[in-house]
Specification:
It contains 6 helices and 10 strands. The radius of gyration is 17 Å and the shape is globular. 37% of the residues lie in helices and 19% in strands. A hairpin with a 5-residue loop joins strand 3 and strand 4. A 4-stranded mixed beta sheet has the order 1-2-6-5, covered by helices on one side. It has one domain. By secondary structure, it is an alpha+beta fold. Helix 2 packs antiparallel against helix 4 and helix 5 packs across helix 6. The site of zinc ion has 7 residues, from helix 5 and helix 6.
Amino acid sequence: MFSKSVSALAAIAFLGVLPGPRQASSQTSQKKPTKNEVAVAHARERVLAILREENGCTAWFREADPDAAGVFESLQIGIAKKKQEFVQRTTNERGEHSYRHPWGGRSNQMAGPGSLVQVNPDGPFFTVTLPVVETRPGGQILFFGGFRILTVGGFPGDSPEAQTTILLHELAHVIGRIPEDDDSWDGRSSRNTDEVLRNCRGEIVETAQRASHASR
Ligand SMILES: [Zn+2]
């Protein structure tokens, strides 16, 4: 998921940015991290665990940047401002539905080391179900349409697998491993996630399982 719109850039001003290695010496306040911040920190560790090992996923990222792990480690991962999110649904004249899910992560294409990745506090990184609203193509809300489970490449929202996938997807944008996509209805973002999973699914699942064993 990718956006370079002015409004997205303006939103950066509201971000709560987690201290990354490059910020460690700045005087950020030593507040107790929130539950969401802890989840981001754990996801960051899982991605680093994957990229520091020799595996197919690492090899795929390295084709775009020989130090993909170093670039990932330098990224600032911020949690965007909370706002009410829905799954938008439109229905065509044949009664077929199209869905638009809220974004999970955002970054800038080819932004490189030290750049900012945002995660959506109401998106699939942290959330597993959201209300569905039927909308006209122009975005006008017609009626409430129940609930829908958010997924990332088939993994349920708010799972370690979904969180790892979102961060790997954003890293892939930052180093140009996958092409730009956006929040549109055309599914280009999903195709990029499929591409990440084609190369990294085994590592994502294995790392999530390892983490859950370790926390028992
Ligand atoms: Zn994307």
